[in-house]
Amino acid sequence: MENNPDVSYLFEPRSVAVVGASSHPGKIGYKVVQNILAMKYPGKVYPINPSGGEVLGIPACKSVTDADGDIDLATIVIPAKFVFDSIKECAKRNVKFVSIITSGFSEVGNLEEEKRIVSFAHDHGMRVLGPNIFGLYSAFSSMNATFGPREVVPGNVAIITQSGALGIAMMGKTLTENIGLSAIVSVGNKSDINEADLLEYLVPKDEVAVILMYIEGVKDGERLVRILRDATRKKPVIVIKSGRSKRGAVAAASHTGSLAGTDGIFSDVMRQCGVIRAESLDEALNWCKFLSKTPAPVGENGVIITNGGGMGVLATDACEKYNVSLSDDIEMLRSAFSTVVPEFGSIKNPIDITGGAPIEDYDKSLDAAMATPEVSSIICLGCETAVFDSDRLAVTLEKYFPGGKSKKPMVFSFFGGPKIDNCIAEYRNKVPIFFDVYEAVSCLGALYADYRNKALKPPVYDESVYDLIDHAAIEEIIKRVRQDKRQFLLSHEAAELMQAAGIQMPKTGVARNMREAVELAKKIGFPVVMKIVSKDIIHKTDAGGVALDIDDEKEVVDAYEAIIHSARAYNPNAIIEGIEVAEQLRKGTETIIGARIDGSFGPIVMIGLGGIYVEVMKDVTFRSFPLTSSEVMNMIAGIKSYPLLLGARGEAKKDIAKVADTIMRVGAVIYKHREISDLEINPLVVYPEGEGAKALDARILLTKSE
Ligand code: ACO
């Protein structure tokens, strides 16, 4: 890309052109100009319209080239068929960014035109936002170059959205929810600028406290992962993902592909990145609002204050769900709350001030919680009783949230009649008060997820794994397979590659005749297994091409004859290269280890419970590669069948370190040799701790050749 302009010109343009600016109030080209003017954008605005005239009182230029100065941002709102020509004009006027609102490109199959525009733009030092977007709002330059709501409250939440319609709706919702925006950017088809570019600008900005991304599909995920992993250590990044089924389009070339399912990889990789994943728009906006206004906690000692046992239990459940830690420090709790809780109440967390508590008792308990430094967050709950003066609840809320801010992280949930409902409706934009306990606790869950992310050290990747691999040997194998015009590796090639990667496989060799088979079997040691080797026979078992449990020389001879006979009957034209004789492995715990270049995320690794149940159980976890040593252990611990590796029912603990080592090695292979698209070991038979693991079978595929 030539003269790639700095993204700051997108958010802080000194001049904006609106190509397709119209004086017809019903048109999008009118609304965009109207919005820009309404926010009192301080830069120069150039309405562009072939008829000239004026738009909303500003003289229009007939072409971008007629503008009397350079243009940092051109917003394009003309029909798709005219867009390319207008981009050409933009190039003449040194435009840095084009924001193409127009629809009718790749989203309707018109990919070629979209590519043509991006390629031209890049060649002329321009970058493209969209197409198929509603534009962008940036508080950094008081610019609302969207056709969304005219009014936007500036603030510290930044939103990046792939959906135009939902994005516009979110803009509206931020008004009703009193969420201040530092930016909202519609990325649409992401023909050029994507989330990663925008995060690079937004994350370092002091004016941005929280970032929300609405994602349908990921482009250039490898870069996004790298940026997100860094971003989430600095700011909370909330993600909401829809269009999950689109990911099912990932070619199911291997188990690793098909097991990825629709959302598996996305979910696991986002978790790895420290992203806080919301299930619904409501949840996402609740979290944005809460995180943007709440001080950081100083520890993980939450307390629940309640007048009802039931509410307290519900909140405790919610804390478990959202990973909010509650204090068990009974001495601290007693010293903080014993004077404010009646005899028949409880100072064990939840702090139960009992159903007889008037609202004043809440104040006393909240004062106690505020005054106790060890209490790091507060969940305040209540059921409306006859002794609870609901009219007075507002006074409590105002007291602990002067000016809408609290000194400690606090959430409220009250349940009752119309007075409670009215109070919640009145205060919900100033105070995190909810009808639903789970909604309240989920906000604290998001806060703590961010708190933990910020405490993480930067990831340290163990680069030494790359030195453990014989890269030249792998390149040589790939070359041979390419020369043979194949995309898959034959089993002996896969075995060679495993050896180059330092992953143990059963001892094996290919016999060209019966005598060689006997010699090989003796050298390997009984029992052995024998398998047909032929490019023309992929499904060996169906062809009667596999024999197991061969215990002596006579059985080798019998099996040799039987395999050749069945294979010829199965496919008389098959060229048989020989018979593979291999060590028969002793039993162990079967896992599946995979690595692939994912269409969205690039190199990813997978572990699961392997063997014949793999498809049924779908008990797998994914991670983006490279991985840190703690991440690989987390990944292994993430499978449901992890207890099998720890040694269930009195069995010995398995060699988990070897499993981790194998994952790192397959990851390193796929990371360094991008011509390999899929690598899958199924099963990796894992033995007790210290005894290692062996790959029984490896399936390796290459990318389509150019
Ligand atoms: N340079 C400058 N102005 C031009 C040019 C040009 N090359 N060509 C045409 N114009 C003018 C037109 O004369 C017209 O001005 P006028 O009102 O004075 O006559 C103006 O540009 C607009 O052109 P129209 O032909 O009237 O187009 P219209 O406004 O109907 O539609 C639009 C253009 C909005 C870009 C449409 O093609 C489109 O893509 N709509 C969908 C937008 C959208 O939904 N975006 C997606 C995401 S947001 C979401 O989903 C909610």
Overview in brief:
This protein is an alpha/beta fold. It is built from 25 helices and 29 strands. Acetyl coenzyme *A binds at residues 19-20, 22-24, 27-29, 48-51, 77-79, 82, 86, 101-104, 132-134, 164-165, 168.
Give a written overview of the molecule.
This protein is of the alpha/beta class. 37% of the residues lie in helices and 21% in strands. The protein has 25 helices and 29 strands. The strands form six sheets. It has a seven-stranded mixed beta sheet with strand order 9-8-11-10-12-13-14, with helices on both faces. Strands 24, 25, 26, 27, 28 and 29 form a six-stranded antiparallel beta sheet that branches. A five-stranded parallel beta sheet has the order 2-1-5-6-7, with helices on both faces. Strand 17 (377-383), helix 14 and strand 18 (410-415) form a beta-alpha-beta unit. Helix 20 (514-524) crosses helix 21. It is flat and about 95 Å long. It starts with 7 loop residues before the first helix and ends with a strand. Residues 245-261 have low confidence and may be disordered. The structure holds acetyl coenzyme *A.
